[in-house]
Amino acid sequence: MTGRLDGKIALITGIGGGMGVAAARMFCAAGAKVVGCDLSEEGVRATQRVVSGQGGDLTVMGGVDLGDALQAEKWVDDAVAVHGGIDILYNNASTQRFGSIEDLSVDDWDFTMRNELNLVFYTVRAAWPHLKAHGGGVILNVGSIAALRGVEFMPQNAHGTAKAGVLSLTRQLVVEGAPHGIRVNAISPGLVETPNTRTFLADPPERVRRIVLDRIPAGRVGRPEDIVSAAIFLCSDEATYINGANLVIDGGGSVLG
């Protein structure tokens, strides 16, 4: 993938952990100049050390709460100013709370909408005039297979609803963005091994193994690199005619219903 994004300026949210670390590292390795943010100051510094050690061009901004519209707008403006433009907005950041319909509180529902759906709208809204001024570009939103089907092993009503909203927003942005040269796509990961899921996956309950892990045709869960490799392709010039796609990345698990 080296060189696939040569000269591109990419804004990536949520680079302080999980798939965001891989996104920052791999986008830089592909030639992009990356400006990334996260709520965690410590997280972005750790990512910067990793990427800088590999020779990547990464600028980080920590303490950014994208669920606040004003902070999202300020971050986008500041990030665009670093290199004087923007080619790619990769909306990776998200934080959610889980619970059944009987147990999930209204506060937990609102928290999930704020930190999985609203923040995508806020960053896109802030980036839109910059993308238009730059002559177009690419927006990539992160959905989830939970937006496409019910999840048996864990109640995800707020998460699934928020991510379904992200996918719906993606489709509408295609229509509004095309006249300005703005492409908008989404990727929907299945179960991915990250620091947050690693302990759980190391010793999964029997029910999870039976209804989830044993039903992935690829024979394994996803890795952050699996997701980011697809993201790099969709953000590259090789994908200039791909607009409005939602690429499911789950090892084939969703085909089994």
Descriptive report:
The protein has 257 residues and is an alpha/beta fold. It has helices spanning 19-29, 41-53, 69-83, 106-133, 157-177, 195-202, 206-211, 224-235, and strands at 9-13, 33-38, 57-62, 88-91, 137-142, 182-189, 246-249. It has a 7-stranded parallel beta sheet, with helices on both faces. Helix 1 (19-29) crosses helix 8 and helix 4 packs parallel to helix 5. Keywords: Oxidoreductase. This is NAD(P)-dependent dehydrogenase (Short-subunit alcohol dehydrogenase family).
Q: What are the segments in which pLDDT stays under 50 over at least 5 consecutive residues?
A: none
Q: Numbering strands along the chain, what is their spatial order in the largest sheet?
A: 3-2-1-4-5-6-7
Radius of gyration, in Å, reads 18 Å
Pairing-aware structural class of the strands and helices? alpha/beta
Detail the topology: elements first, then pairings.
Elements: E1 9-13, H1 19-29, E2 33-38, H2 41-53, E3 57-62, H3 69-83, E4 88-91, H4 106-133, E5 137-142, H5 157-177, E6 182-189, H6 195-202, H7 206-211, H8 224-235, E7 246-249
List the main descriptive attributes of the protein structure presented here:
alpha/beta; oxidoreductase; 7 strands; globular; 44% helix; Rossmann fold; seven-stranded parallel sheet
